[in-house]
Design a protein that fits this description.
By secondary structure, the protein is of the alpha+beta class. It has a single domain, classed as Transposase IS200-like (Alpha-Beta Plaits). Strand 4 and strand 5 form a beta hairpin. Helix 1 crosses helix 2.
Length: 152
């Protein structure tokens, strides 16, 4: 059963599986660089109210499962995470900037994202049969009319 989150005017469960890579898929995410990336991702997510459920940094890609509030789009969240981590990496590891192929961009342009949520088939059935269910409940409920009796 998914965990539901609450904000002032919304109850939500928006979880995503996200994968992204360094530019040219270089196998560079190890040692101090991996630690810095992990630390910065966690800091940015805490700042933006994004809950990290799982985070796994491999040499050439990052896996993350996170719950993102509906006020933040997935593209906005990824832009902030990738941007802030790249800035921190270039400041903390000046040797990265020496290589001409980075071009001030540490991460590749895209990312892969899938939603993680409730059972799609269950939701489809709920939506499809909702009208029938309401009619059935209406017929089964007691009649509470003011002017007519249930026998008429």
């Amino acid at each position: 059963m998914p965990k539901w989150k609450k904000l002032a005017h919304v109850v939500y469960q928006c979880s995503y599986h996200i994968v992204w890579t360094p530019k040219y898929r270089y196998r560079i995410l190890e040692g101090d660089i991996a630690k810095m990336v992990e630390h910065k991702i966690k800091a940015v997510c805490e700042w933006k109210g994004i809950e990290i459920l799982e985070l796994n940094i491999r040499k050439d890609h990052v896996y993350m499962v996170a719950t993102i509030p509906p006020r933040i789009s997935i593209s906005e969240a990824m832009g902030i995470i990738k941007g802030k981590t790249a800035i921190a990496l270039f400041k903390g590891h000046t040797k990265l900037k020496e290589k001409p192929y980075w071009g001030n961009h540490f991460w590749s342009r895209g990312y892969c994202v899938t939603t993680i949520g409730m059972d799609e088939e269950k939701i489809r059935r709920y939506v499809k049969y909702q009208e029938e269910r309401e009619k059935q409940e209406e017929n089964n409920s007691k009649y509470y009319g003011l002017f007519e009796s249930p026998d008429s």
